[in-house]
């Protein structure tokens, strides 16, 4: 859940909760149902916005790891209007005209705030998996998990107050997206990428979370320069791993060519006559 989503959810709950308690005290069942319905719909909107952020982040970096494009932002806009209908129609008993106008205004405001869904690029994974003889379903699951981790690291970097640390985290995130795009085109290398998919991403995510957990950035002290150097090394390590994957593919090709050449040589070798 992004910072904007948390802020919206907190503001909405802060405004609806007192009204809910008042209606409970008053014993107005219809109003209580309307407010509970609106709170549930708002929470669903927050979840959808988080999915939309993850889908858009992948699309921005040329990664298309989900089989189907889902219009999360459009669904959020629709549910926002529906939540207003729940409040206006049940909790306040406004007229139908007033309810429709309020719902349209709320939906329009949400559209202006969250924007529209980003159209994804072509799904390359199905083609590359078929070309390389690997399971597209398994590869998609692995890449989706990695994408969620990278998105979370990006969110942690977004709220980092130290500009230098934020810049280094952003660089590591960008390199991780490049790696993910490479693995989408070369899913046969996923078997060799477990260190990236699990160890690297988990370690970066934990580090970013621990940095943000400091009460004051000054608490880093002399460790700040060491941390910046560590983040630079992380970005370089990701770039080296990606280069190593490409080199491994080249070596595999050379080995296959050599093996086939030996088979052909053996086949052409004349056999000695019997007798």
Tell the overall outline.
flat
If helices are DSSP runs of H or I spanning 4 or more residues, what is the number of helices? 9
SS content category: mainly alpha
Q: Give the DSSP E fraction (strand runs of 2 or more residues).
A: under 5%
Q: Structurally, how many domains make up the residues?
A: 2
- Average pLDDT rating: 78
Radius of gyration: 27 Å
Distance between the termini: 82 Å
The parts where pLDDT drops under 50 for at least 5 residues are none
In total, the number of strands is 0
Q: Brief description of this entry?
A:
The chain is an all-alpha fold and 275 residues long. The protein is built from 9 helices and no strands.
Plain-language structure description:
The chain is mainly α. The protein has two domains: 112 residues; 144 residues, no CATH class. The protein contains nine helices and no strands. α1 runs antiparallel to α2. The longest helix is centred in the last third of the chain and has 46 residues. It is flat. The termini are far apart. The mean pLDDT is 78.
């Amino acid at each position: 859940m992004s910072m904007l989503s948390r802020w919206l959810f907190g503001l909405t709950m802060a405004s609806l909760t007192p009204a809910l308690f008042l209606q409970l005290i008053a014993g107005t069942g219809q109003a209580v149902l309307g407010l509970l319905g609106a709170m549930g719909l708002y929470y669903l909107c927050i979840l959808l916005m988080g999915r939309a952020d993850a889908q858009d982040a992948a699309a921005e970096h040329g990664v298309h790891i989900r089989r189907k494009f889902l219009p999360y932002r459009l669904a959020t806009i629709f549910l926002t209007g529906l939540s207003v209908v729940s409040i206006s129609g049940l909790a306040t008993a406004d007229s139908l005209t007033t309810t429709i106008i309020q719902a349209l205004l709320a939906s329009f405001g949400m559209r202006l705030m969250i924007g529209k869904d980003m159209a994804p690029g072509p799904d390359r994974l199905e083609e590359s998996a078929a070309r390389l003889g690997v399971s597209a379903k398994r590869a998609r699951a692995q890449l989706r998990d990695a994408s969620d981790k990278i998105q979370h690291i990006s969110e942690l970097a977004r709220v980092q107050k130290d500009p230098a640390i934020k810049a280094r985290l952003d660089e590591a995130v960008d390199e991780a997206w490049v790696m993910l795009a490479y693995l989408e085109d070369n899913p046969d290398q996923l078997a060799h990428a477990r260190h990236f998919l699990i160890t690297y991403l988990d370690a970066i995510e934990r580090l970013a979370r621990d940095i943000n957990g400091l009460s004051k950035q000054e608490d880093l002290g002399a460790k700040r320069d060491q941390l910046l150097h560590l983040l630079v090394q992380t970005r370089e390590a990701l770039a080296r791993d990606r280069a190593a994957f490409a080199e491994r593919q080249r070596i595999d090709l050379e080995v296959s060519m050599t093996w086939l050449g030996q088979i052909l040589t053996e086949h052409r070798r004349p056999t000695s006559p019997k007798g």
